[in-house]
Write a structure and sequence with these properties.
- The protein is of the alpha+beta class.
- It is about 40% helix and about 35% strand.
- It has a five-stranded mixed sheet with strand order 1-2-3-4-5.
- α1 crosses α2 (about 25-40).
- The chain starts with a helix and ends with a strand.
């Protein structure tokens, strides 16, 4: 399965969750529902996965933690904030660069219209 196919499944699951639950809940609620939906679709989903960073031979274990790591190909960061800002974008871009993953998604469940709260972030895709 390609990164784009995975992102399409993530987006569809996000829309379903957003329609059923609406806005105003904690990120953890949306995260657990998204894991549930993606596992139903047969995807391998790791939650709150720690990622190591290597710097000039130094290995920093647990350098950062991603919300969801799907099929070892796509990182998903879940938000429930008024708006996605540059900090969220660059944070995810750094996660992608450091882990050598090509695609990440920010899903902001606080958006009135779900599609307006979704941002794809690409690293050499």
């Amino acid at each position: 399965m390609t990164e784009n196919e995975i992102s399409s499944l993530v987006f569809d699951a996000g829309i379903k969750i957003h329609r059923k639950l609406g806005i105003g809940l904690y990120e953890n609620v949306y995260e657990q529902c998204l894991i549930h939906e993606l596992k139903i679709k047969g995807l391998n989903v790791e939650s709150q996965k720690d990622i190591a960073v290597e710097y000039e031979g130094l290995i920093i274990e647990k350098a950062f933690r991603v919300d969801l790591f799907i099929e070892n190909k796509v990182i998903v960061e879940i938000k429930a904030v008024p708006e996605i800002n540059d900090y969220h974008f660059f944070q995810l871009l750094n996660y992608l660069r450091i882990s050598n993953i090509k695609l990440g998604m920010i899903l902001n469940f606080h958006s009135t219209l779900f599609k307006n709260g979704v941002k794809r972030v690409v690293n050499k895709l």
